[in-house]
Design a protein that fits this description.
The structure is a homodimer. Chain A is mainly α. The interface between A and B is large, with 44 and 44 residues.
């Protein structure tokens, strides 16, 4: 049934879906979980409530799509930026800079709203936990790849995990004040520590 | 005017104040900033609304007192636990274990609620930012002392800061699921890294 007439409609449908997801991300960051309803998201997206509910039956469905989108966007952004990093001596610090700045944008605030809401909302929790686990695993995989680490070496897995946990802690520290100057110094020192302590597979500094 | 008759009243007043602060901490953790009003706190504390407003004129006043209390309680708890730590070889990992578990309790959830609320609430933000800076400085001071670090050595300050940022990241990771097993491995590895990378003043392992 792939007639020419269907194409534009499918595309319209994709655009609507995407606008709803974008609006959901914005609303979650602005109003939190409690303040974000399908009606408010639809209004922000410029979509009728009926059309919104055609795409996403419940608020939970929309949030699942939004979190998945955020996770994928983050990993994609990471890969794009990583492709532009220098090779050689300077690479390790550039990679660490990238990783430790992962959670300093508005996406992190949205994620925080959801985590906190899920920590007390019994309906939201089972939705968020497996999603977060998946997004977290993907971030770990990319970090491992960028740092060029052999995960079989003792301690390597934990140091990569600690790098991402540190990144989330730095994201928190950046929530209320611009923490960029302090973070830059931590990036420098963390890169030095990883250079000494992290057994590398592919010789980042070669 | 320190007559015997005044003593019990002062004590009652202190008890009421303390009950209001405890209730504020509980309510913030449970309902977040938006859901926490003076009326709800008073009810939880078993205190009349008038009495609550005698002690704390506004919700902001109560929250300042609650955050200060949380910060002091945390540092006090840290000192008490630190006093019981072993000396010698085992001390460094025990200290790291203490620090990286700082933000895994219910107090952290309360703090998170406030940080997120302050990130979008223009009235709350100027209240929370200086308070958090003060609490953060105190945590840094204690961490420095426990790790026995000479902060004048290059990189030492950043590694102690990174340890506390990592602790907050681990607190986030523990919000939705029990992350204790993974955290224990990170504690072990981080203690090893600090043992190698952190210039120590007072010879922790001596």
């Amino acid at each position: 049934m792939n007639t020419p007439a269907r194409e534009p409609q499918q595309e319209r449908s994709r655009t609507t879906r995407r606008r709803l997801i974008d609006a959901a991300v914005t609303c979650l960051g602005e109003f939190g979980w409690n303040g974000t309803t399908v009606a408010i998201i639809a209004q922000r997206a410029g979509v009728s409530r009926g059309a919104a509910q055609h795409h996403f039956r419940t608020r939970e469905d929309l949030v699942i799509a939004a979190v998945e989108y955020l996770g994928e966007a983050q990993v994609e952004q990471l890969r794009t930026r990583a492709a532009q990093l220098p090779q050689g001596q300077a690479r390790l610090e550039a990679v660490v800079d990238l990783l430790l700045n992962l959670y300093t944008g508005p996406m992190f605030r949205t994620a925080l709203h959801l985590w906190i809401a899920a920590s007390t909302d019994e309906a939201l929790r089972p939705v968020i936990v497996p999603l977060e686990a998946r997004v977290g695993r993907e971030a770990h995989r990319v970090a491992l790849e960028l740092l060029g680490v052999d995960e079989d070496r003792p301690g390597a897995r934990e140091l990569v995990q600690a790098t991402l946990d540190l990144a989330r802690g730095l994201g928190l520290a950046n929530l209320l004040t611009d923490d960029a100057r302090r973070r830059t110094k931590i990036v420098h020192e963390w890169a030095r520590v990883l250079g000494v302590s992290l057994p590398q597979r592919s010789g980042l500094s070669s």
